[in-house]
Amino acid sequence: MKKYLEIAKAYMKTQLIWRWDTFIDVVLAMAKVIFAWILWSILFEGKEQIAGMGFYTMISYYIISSYLFQLDKSSEISQQMTNMLRNGTFSKYMVIPVHTQAYFVAMAAGKIVFSACICFFTTILCFYFSGISFVAAINIKILFCGAIMIALGLLFMAELNYFLGILTLKFEEISTFLMIKDNFSAFVTGAVVPLALLPEWMLSGMRYLPFYYVTYLPSMLLIGKQG
Amino acid sequence: MEIIQTENLTKRYKRYKKQEGLMGSMKGLFHREYEEKTAVDAFNMTVNKGEFVGLIGPNGAGKTTLVKMLTGIIAPTEGTIQVMGYYPNKLEKAFKQQYAVVMGQKSQLFFELTTEDTLKLFQQIYNIPEDQYKKNKNFFVDLFQVKDLMNVQVRNLSLGERMKMELIVALLHNPKILFLDEPTIGLDAVASRQIRTFLKDVNESKGTTILLTSHYMEDIKVLCKCSIVMNHGRKLYDGNTDLLFEQYQKSKKMTIYFENNADSGIPESCRILEKTKDKLVLEIPKEITEKVLEFYIGHYSIRDIGIEEEEIGSVVERIYREV
User: Fold this and answer.
1) Which residue of A has its CA nearest to B111?
2) Do domains B2-9+44-246 and B250-322 have the same CATH topology?
3) Distance (Å, rounded) from C-alpha B177 to C-alpha B179?
4) Less CB within 10 Å around the terminal CB: N or C of chain A?
């Protein structure tokens, strides 16, 4: 376990090297809050609620879900794996005493932790200075469950991308699989359109898909809705 | 004691035989023809503990495939293989703990970080106790004299410095076997010599068995007592490196500087490589070197004379052609 923590730490350190990337992360986190405010201000004009959510609840949902969506760095796993398998450099992970799958998960975790911290503090500061009220669950148990679900969701995405990366061994070219996964997960996770806006039959169908639990449900839990 | 042993080791690949042109590509969408390529063919080899073995052969000879099988990256199609008592492709942790691979194109270093950071990571990966880690690190850092470079970002290191760091990372856990693939590729003469000295020291002082693949015959000649020559997946030679080169070295280069402007005669079966007023460079069959030397010393007033071995590249070409 210690070795994987060290791997995560090494990748976290690599993120810290790039000062411009860090700056861009901060700017994007701020832009997200501003964009959400503008977008939902227009959509809420003359309305009290949309899909059972008030203005601030909707902004909070949007910010949390896009924050979680941005946290998911797992697509880098499949990209990196497919590139390395195709140019023959993947074997460097096979000759060291680590579990390759765990190595890539630790790698994604290291990258996520850094990004999570930067974006979290920027978002909090944005909310504070802009005066937008942030709607969040006040029940500790629910918050805790939400946090667990986020961790499991990110783990699921990392594993999924690892297995998609492995498909390179069979198909060599996996960009179609990755495109399907990206579009599908962006839609089903609720990061593009809040799932609450969709018809009930579609929503209940999505409950059977793991992506539902990656962004949408934790976001709803964190803003105090049960999903 | 045998540390690597293979018997009838064979690796066959199936590869897509694409027809040329756009039509060929279109046909390939519906019907594909595959051909079988034997990369390694019934290969027998034995390496003893502590040996420094050179693996040579032209491009496409099967060297990399052989090393990949020995390190467990790929499984053989046929034959038996045993490295330190393990079947490599099982990729057991205990097996991977005991060897290291350094391949020119597959860096284990993190380019954004320093070598010190990578070493810390490898300490955890190989579960090296702190005291052993410090001892090994200091040993290799002193040997390479790279103390000042340990906290420099890897991407800012030169190619030679990077290769030294790769070797330190690879050797940190005291592997029993070190597989090296072109460690001196692209390096200048000074860096190459440093790497060679380092590898020689490691082999002698730590008893590490080293299997070296290189196109630079200077590496093989200086470092490896034993060599294996392969081509088209087959083993062509397995034995003493000096004997191999001696056997295939047909000629020597003799450079003679005359005191006066001498219009010298040329002994039969010698070839002129260069001729000026007072200088003569000849390629002579190695069996008659002594006679030719006697001839010039006996007949001319000579200022200086030098005899060099045949260029290593020519010898190698001959080995690949004739073995």
Assistant:
1) A14
2) no
3) 7
4) N
Core vs surface per residue B209-239: b (16+ CB within 10 A) or e: bbbbbbbbbebbbbbbebbbbbbebebbbee
- Domain regions of chain B by residue span: 2-9+44-246, 250-322
CATH architecture of B2-9+44-246: 3-Layer(aba) Sandwich (3.40)
Task: Give the ipTM.
Answer: 0.80
**In terms of CA atoms, which chain A residue is nearest residue B128?**
A3
Contacts B172 to A, Cβ<8 Å: none
Candidate from A10, A92, A95 with C-beta closest to B121: A10
- Residues counted in chain A: 227
CATH for the stretch B250-322: 3.30.70.250
Q: Which residues of A touch B127 (CB under 8 A)?
A: 3
Which among A87, A114, A51 has a CA at the least distance from the CA of B107?
A: A87
SS3 of residue A4 by DSSP: helix
